[in-house]
Amino acid sequence: MNPNPLSDREKALEDQWIREKEKQMAKARAEKKEQSTKDSDSGSKTQQQVRDESK
To answer: What's the pLDDT tens digit per position in 23-52?
Structure first.
């Protein structure tokens, strides 16, 4: 039972593609989380500015 070298290569390419896709998705999640954090921070600052102005 000799392993099929083509199937080994296909599996390696598939694994590589999966790792790259997971890396891209993780990066996208991190950017989205960072963006939502920035949005939250800017929203909080705006509310703080409103409170300061009302005093």
So the answer is: 999 999 999 988 887 777 655 555 556 566
DSSP H helices, 1-55, are: 5-54
| pTM for this predicted structure | 0.55
Q: Decide: residue 12, CB within 10 A, 0-12 exposed, 13-18 middle, 19+ buried.
A: exposed
What size, in residues, is the chain?
Answer: 55
Q: Identity (one letter) of the amino acid at 41? A: D
* CA dist list (Å): 12 to 4, 31, 42, 52, 54: 12, 29, 45, 60, 63
